[in-house]
Amino acid sequence: MTSVAAQAAPTDAPQLIRVGLVEDDPATSASFVAILSAAPELALQMVAFNLADALRQLEHTPLDVLLVDLGLPDGSGLDLIRAACLRWPDCAVMVSTIFGDEAHVFSSIEAGASGYLLKDISLDRLVIEILSLHAGGSPISPSVARKILMRARPTVAPASPTAVNLSARESEVLQLISKGFTAEEVAARLAVSQSTVLTFVRRIYAKLQVGSRAEVITAAHRLGLLHEG
How many other CB atoms are there within 10 angstroms of residue 50's CB atom? Predict the structure, then answer.
């Protein structure tokens, strides 16, 4: 006879987010492994310390999120980003690095990264940003977001602010995401739900005809939609 408990066993448990980590510094890797392994929403599927091992594991390890250091002992993390995007197109790549200069930032975005975090981020915040990335966000450290803005300034003349019409609330959301705030943080600041913020973000993306946070920041600056300060 089948037990009542067996009959009632859930069959639609939430699927864990499969995460890969590539980090060559042993202490940093150990810290990341500890916090990622402890997060109930995440399943750490892959840990590598160099490019060669990461590429080998990547071939047979499907991932939802890949956390990549750029400075690896045997090559560049950029090569791994490109390989991950080709092997697992649905995998979102997040850079975790000490390099915040313009060259590394834009090379990573061009290679296929959807997020870019500097290693001064707290471990608890790292998990939050991974969840945001998997939900469709593009987490970017505030100082990195500023570099994206600064790059746009010398080369693009601002168009009329009336070229794109944003509602007052959409404009508020735009100002905050351009400064690097996550959807969760924007929701808290505006006293609305996170799903409401994501709806505003989708509308902003549609109006600006962009598909990522980096693109929305560049387009918003070009159109004169961002306020100083």
Answer: 16
Cβ atoms of 104 and 84 within 8 Å: the answer is no
Residue position matching structure tokens 């990622």: 36
**How far is C-alpha 97 from the chain's CA centre?**
13
What confidence tier does 163 reach under pLDDT thresholds 50, 70, 90? Answer: low
**Predicted structure pTM score:** 0.61
Under 8 Å CB-to-CB from 189, ≥6 apart: which residues? 176, 181
Which residues, including other chains, have CB under 8 Å from residue 66's CB and lie 6 or more apart? 19, 20, 22, 46, 80, 81, 84, 91, 92, 93, 94
Burial class (CB in 10 A: 0-12, 13-18, 19+), 109: buried
Return d(Cα 64, Cα 133) in angstroms, integer.
Answer: 10
Amino acid at 125: R
Whether pLDDT at 158 is above 50: no
How is residue 43 written in tokens?
């399943």
> SS3 for 97?
strand
115-118 β-sheet, strand order:
42-48, 17-22, 65-68, 92-97, 115-118
Q: What is the pLDDT of residues 36-56, one digit of tens each?
A: 999 999 999 999 999 999 999
Quick one: 31 exposed, middle or buried, by C-beta within 10 A (0-12, 13-18, 19+)?
middle
Question: How many Cα neighbours within 13 Å face the side chain of 185?
Answer: 16
